[in-house]
Each structure stands twice: as structure tokens, then as C-alpha cells.
Structure prediction request, 656 residues.
Amino acid sequence: MARIELSHIRHSYKPNPKSDEDYALKEVHQTFEDGGAYALLGPSGCGKTTLLNIISGLLKPSEGDLLFDGTSVKDYSTQDRNIAQVFQFPVVYDTMTVYDNLAFPLRNRGVPEDEVGRKTRDILELIALEHKAGSKAKGLGADEKQKISLGRGLVRSDVNAILFDEPLTVIDPHMKWVLRSQLKELHRQFAYTMVYVTHDQTEALTFADKVVVMHEGQVVQVGTPDELFQNPEHTFVGYFIGSPGMNILKCAMNGNQARIGEHTIELSGLGNPPASQNTELGIRPEFVRLTEAGSGMPIQIQAVEDVGRYKIVRGLLDGLPLNAVVPEDQSIPESAAVEFDTQRLNLYADSWRVAREA
Amino acid sequence: MDKTLNNKAWFMVLPVLLLVAFSAVIPLMTVVNYSFQDSFGNNQFFWAGLDWFQELLHSERFHNALARNLVFSGLILAIEIPLGICVALCMPRKGIGVPICLVLMALPLLVPWNVVGTIWQVFGRVDIGLLGYTLNALGINYNYTQDWLAAWITVVVMDVWHWTSLVVLLCYAGLVSIPEAYYQAARIDGASRWAVFRYIQLPKMHRVLLIAVLLRFMDSFMIYTEPFVVTGGGPGNSTTFLSIDLVKMAIGQFDLGPAAAMSLVYFLIILLFSWIFYTLMTRDSDSTANASKGGSEA
Prediction:
């Protein structure tokens, strides 16, 4: 296991990148601590897989350095880096049996056969394919193949890190939960450094201790699931995490007062008001209180979605879309208004959060 | 369930029926007809029963030609398949090199058979041919009109030059269809170059290789034009393959009965070998499919 440091990594798939636009990864400076379980979260095309392939050595970054436990490994081959990686789509060696597939990474490294046998059987048990050990991998179903891919990643116990590139995409939902908790269990047991790429926030939040949110080739926030929920550093994190995402409302600043249309909201603890004109208020739907008209800001309700444990109210506040989460038993008033929990309000200038004292 | 009777349907299949009848069934049946009869020209035929077949199967001339054909096809497969795989592995996967390589590879395939024969016939001549003249100037005794070994080497090398491209193109198609993730996984698993070939590339090329082996076997077993142009079946009978012998018999000697019998046997041999190759090469994948089926039931 190792501590992985990405030092000012930039990568472009073009031979002569000129502007920032040409970079798939725009300056990533990030450390993955030894034994940590990380999730790389972001929409498709944000550079997650690129970052993963740079760590494993399948890609050489255009700029920057990569260190394992303080040693630069930028010029090391994939094999020398000793990384395990599981891909989005299952890769199995068709002509080999399930057992031989799992033993393959060990045999390639000259591990003695009795140890190969022991480890392979452990993994077979873990992925629950003992009964298929002797059959050819070719005829198996997609989820069984992916379990073999996963197993090949887990079979080497001396790896520096295990990287997962959306490994559960092809697995059916029930099996997803089982496999994910098994991975989590493995992490607790052996303290592997794990990096898990996904675009599914539930997957990221349940798997990882720390979530790295990426957006357009940049890391926008690193934090625990709770931090990402409470204080999104960037409006993107706000609406990408949470269901529904954070409400982002354009506002005008006047000293400590934020104005939305004709409503004014006092923001406490604001040191210097931001200089930028491009300011927005962010509030989680969970912290929007729905009340009878009269108190608070009137809202025009457009739809109510009952999702079981709570209801989502979708409405318009001064023409701006606003969602609120209300308890299952609360009735929805005819003419409604909303109140914001001002402690939970975040102010954003040019999409980045403006710090406030508590 | 009642069967729907609709005699109009016969009119629908009639065009195809006629086409197949005139292109395949009638010519084939004519040959079958000839093979049981003796003819002295003038469209006079006499029943000969199985005589021609018995004579053929005991004829040393037929045995020798068949043996030559088998050795020739064996050599062709042993050279062209591995060579084709090697060349395909070395071809670039992207960039300007791809179209250049593909065009270069396709060129020999576009040359008509008898032109290929003529090219090599001239190329190998000891008086004016670049190859023949050079070899002799270097002190190597090479003359395909006198030496059977030189004739064989010329014919085999000519076929390799002409047809390896086909194997290359088929293998290349198989190789480029392998997803990048397989190579990435192999690098992560620490697989050697040989292991990548053995466990990823070769299994993924399995189907195209089956086609390549079948095509190259059938074509090489039926080869006629090129050796006919270069050596005319000589020196002696050393490069007289079944097809050359057949033409001699049918047109040279006008022995229609024996030639027809030989055609049928020739046809059945090709069919038999193709079936053997096909069965051998698909057996493996079938057995795994069955095994996994059995496994899931268990």
C-alpha cells in the first residue's frame, strides 16, 4: 500500500495543447493517503478515467509528476507500479478457466504455485464463483465476468493501490449492493488504498471515506460525504450531489444583504462582500421550509413529487426554479411561501463558495 | 395446424431455382453422368459403371498428383498462416501507415492469376529474370525448368507472395476489433508479450483464422493457373497437381469419363478436408459453450 501524490498533473490528448480547452485534465494536485478509500465522482467526460489511467501508468501525463510514498514513478511502467485496476467493462481471458483467470496476475509475477492456489481460492470464495472454478470463462454472463475482473484486481495482496473504473456498471442492482459492501469490508480488513471512479453519487458516498468531485478536468472539492452535502465549495458540487440537487439562485449583493428579486436576505458572518457581480445563493432543498403565504417569500408551486419518505415540491420563486423537501405528513398549502434556514445558506461568487464565519 | 396450400409460391422461387439449376445442378449432374460412361466423341456414350472410379483409385498417376497437392497445401498453410499473423501483428493500428499498409497488402490480391504466373515465370528465368539471373550469378544453381526443387520453391514462394495478404487482412480485421481494455487489463496483470498474444490476440482471431485456413486450403488445393503458367507441371511431372492433371486428361487426351470421375473424387476430397478443418477448429468453442451450459444447470 502506498500514499499516492499527484503533483500538478495536467494531461491533454492533443499533441500540442494551446489553451485550457485542450486539456482533458487541468492541473490536478491531489494526495490519496495510504489506506484511504476514495471515490472520484463526476459526470461522464470530466477526466476521471484519465486521472485513473495516469495513476496506473496506462497514460503518461503531459505535465506534472506522480509520487508513490514520495518516490516519483512517472517513468515507471504499469507493471513496475504494481497497481490493480478494474475496468468498466468486463475483461476475461476467454480460453482460460475461471480459476486460471484469477491466477493469471499472480503467475505472471512468478508467485509460487501453492500460494497462487491459496489466494485464488480465497478470491473464488469472495466472489462466490467456487462452483465455476473449472469452467471456461467464455460462456459466463456479464456480471460473472465482471466479478472475475474484480477478482483479478483483488488477488494480489501486495499492490500499491486498487483502482476501480466504474466497475459495477454492468452488474444488476441487487448484486451491486452486495459487491460494494464486500469491497468496503475488504478495505476495512486489509486497508488497501482504493480509488473508485463513478458518476453515481450514491455509490461514491456509500463507498468512500473521502469523495473527490471532478468537473471539466478539475478537482472542485475533496471532502467527506457530509462536507460535500453541507458546504459545497462549488455550485457544481451543490447540484451534482443530493437528490434533488442544491437550489442555486442568482442574487445581487448589497453589503451583507443578498437580493433575490424584491426579497432581501441578511447574511451574517460575511467578512468582505465579494467583488464579483456574478453572485448566487445556494440552499439545499432539505433546508427550505414551506409555509402558508404571509410569512416568508411567496412561491408558485408547479409540481409535487411524492417519493415515499418525503415529498419534493418544485416551484418558482420570482421566476427562478426552487425545490423544497417537505415531510411526508405535511400538507401543501394552496398559496405557499418559503423560508430559508440562513445558517445553511451558501453564497457563491463566480461559482465558488464565499467563506462565512459561523 | 393446417398447412396453407399456396401453389403460387412456386413461382416466387422459380427464378432462384432456374439460376441454381443452370449454374450448379445441371453442370454437376453432367459430370456425374459422364463419370459412369465412356465416350468416343460424336456424342456417343456407353455405360461404364464404376470402372472409371476403380481405375482412378488404383492409378499411381492420381496418387502422385494427390500427394503433391497435399504436400503443397500443407506447405502453404504452414507458411502463410503464421506469416500472415506475424505481418498483421506488425501493422500499424493508427495514423497514415494504416491506409498505406492496407493498399500495399491488397495489391497482390488484385493481380489476375495468370499475370502472377507470368510475372514469376519471367522473374525466375535464368537468362533474363532478375531472380534467376541473380541467383545463378551468385553461384546458386537455380533453374525451375530443370530442377524439381527449384520448381517447387518457385511455385510455393509465388503462392506465398500472392496469397499471404489475404491472411494478413483477415487477421488484421480480427486484431483491430479487440477492445483497448483487454490490452490495458493485460498490462495491469503484468502479462508478457507472448501471453498477450496467446490469451488475447489468438483467441480473438480464432474466427477469422478459421476462414483464412479454409480459404487458403481450398484455393491451394485447387491451384491451377500459376503453376501451369510457370512450370506447366514440370520438370517431368514434379509440379503436376490434380487440377493440371485433370485438364490434361479432359482436354489433352479427351478422356471425358475418367476426367469426370476424377473431378468428383477431387471435389469430395476438398469437401472432406474442409469439413475436417471446420469441425476441428469449431469443436473447442462448442465444447466450452456446452460446458458452461452444463455448469449453470448444475
